[in-house]
Amino acid sequence: MTGFFSSSKPAHSSHNSSSPSPPHTFSETLMEDSLKNAEAIIKRWDLDNGSSNSSYCTISNLFRDNRAEAKQFVDAVIDLQHAMRFVIKESSSSQQLVRAQKLMQIAIKRLEKEFRTILAGNRYFLDSESTASREYSNRSSTGSDEDQASEDDNTVDIQARFSEVSITEEGEKISVTADLRAIADCMIDAGYGKECAQIYQLNRKSVIDETLYCLGIESFNISVIQKMDWDVLEKKIKSWLSAVKVAVCTLLYGERILCDQVFAVSDNIRESCFSEIAKDSALALFTFPEMVAKYKKLSIEKMFRILDLYDVISELWSEIELIFGFDSTAVVRSQAMSSMEKLREAARAILSEFESAIKKDSSKVVSGGGIHPLTRYVMNYLVFLSDYSGPISEIVADVPVSVKSPLPESYLLSPIADDENSPACAVSVRLAWLILVLLCKLDGKAGFYGDVPLSYLFLANNLNYVVSKVRESSLKLLLGSIWLSNHEAKVEQYMENYKRMGWSKVLASLPENLTVEISPAEVNQCFCKFNSGFEEAYRKQNSWVIPDPKLRDEVKISLAKKIVTAYRAFYEKNWETVSRSGSGGEVESIVRFVPDDLQNYLSDLFYGTGFSENSSTSHGSSSRSTSTFSSPLR
């Protein structure tokens, strides 16, 4: 192979050939032409050149200050590399290769500087620290609807940024990403892909780390988390929740796009670069929720932060799979899935604890048959829980409910009976079950009242509160109209039982059939029994309460229709009989109420204080006492 590049001593083949010139002459000529063309442009931008132009080349940027020469520079390097490959195949010992290799090293040194300078000068423009910070600021100051719109625009926003161009003084459009790709393609083609990737990784990894820090994402270990007070940890959770969508949909997704564009020529390099840049930060990002799920001081009240964490990862799962789809980043997908599983386990444990707490509640009944604090607590909790029907359905989908209750099965009716295996049905049944557990507990507490009518009033008040909470919240959609109508009917049933048993003695004192004539003595006896029964019922019930104004008015109207109407008819028929048979004092002791009195007394009931402000004004007293019943007949 000696003398391969010598034009004065052409080499001769050992075989007979009619070819006038062997291929070695062509390769030598090709290399000489490539060297001559490349040397002029490459040495002009040699960073180590000792000429007067050296200082200019050192401080100036080829791709920024002289784009025409930048294109020539890249083309020259590519041509030189192709020529070197051709010569190596023909004569690997050619002296021209040594000269070409030195020139190539000069070119690569310049390209490394250009690559590094472009990355450093555009670190906030390329991907996104500015974009992420702007999105973060917007999300912190706007409502949920705007948040959703902003999230939907993330992909468009990032792609637009990557296609943005700047304009030179000559009006030429410049794409920074295209410049980076041109340099990367050139270096990879020249065999310097590793060096190019290292420069890229060093710069972009710092951008990722700095941006996550600005967004409030921190790295913790489990021991630090376990030692935190909940107030401190909750602030960390809120910070994480406000930042994670920006981190995934803007920062990491944008970095994946940038990496794919810059290193489009090499699948291996773009995968290894993105993995090196983003994997550690993403692992730290998705490890935090798992550590929260393992927090030893989790309690019922902390459920909603667990659901927040689960919900956001579930919502981002498609993006996580897309961004970290490489084999080398599979560990990130695994970590996100692991966090979801641990959060799911934590939520299930809290739900079990919540159910157990209802069953074990030992608080006393409230006076007057009002709404029990347990009822308020449980229903407010379930209302909040219903707003998380999506994550809850995933969490309880494969957890069966064992129905063991003294109450009818109708209490557990779900609105989705057609598909009992659907996630929506699972959450509906679970919520209906928790309400059933509450109603069972209230049923037991009602027995502690010494008065059966008061027990029914207590059950009616509390079930009415349950129904109202369901009707006014997302629970209505989950439990459905059938569930609502069944429980509304049960409220009416409880209230009818109260009215029947609480006022039976009063109603029984009046004859059922007013057309039947009775003696004056029997008339007097009926009035006396009515007086006694009404006074006793009023005295007992003037401290009872119906908190719901609508239900309270309905009960008063119903009682008035039954009691006042029956008494008025009896009064109007028998008043003259009583008045003829005795003196004024005797009449007043027998007929102690006129019909309108009863209406006023009934209007005072169910406020829990024994009187209403309106009635106290109309009766001229500030309270109702036993002596009120001794007032003169009016």
From TrEMBL:
Region (Disordered), start-end ranges: 1-27, 613-634
User: A Pfam family name for this chain?
Assistant: Exo70_C
Q: Which GO terms describe its molecular function?
A: phosphatidylinositol-4,5-bisphosphate binding
InterPro entries this protein is in? Cullin_repeat-like_dom_sf, Exo70, Exo70_C
SUPFAM superfamilies under this entry? Answer: Cullin repeat-like
Keywords linked to the UniProt accession: Exocytosis, Protein transport, Transport
- Under the cellular component aspect of Gene Ontology, which terms does the record hold? exocyst
Which part of the chain is the Exocyst complex subunit Exo70 C-terminal domain?
Answer: 238-604
**GO BP term (any one):** protein transport
Q: Where are the transmembrane segments?
A: none
| Similarity comment text for this entry | Belongs to the EXO70 family.
The entry's function note states: Component of the exocyst complex.
- Please report the name of this protein according to its UniProt entry: Exocyst subunit Exo70 family protein
What organism does the UniProt record list as the source? Answer: Nicotiana tabacum
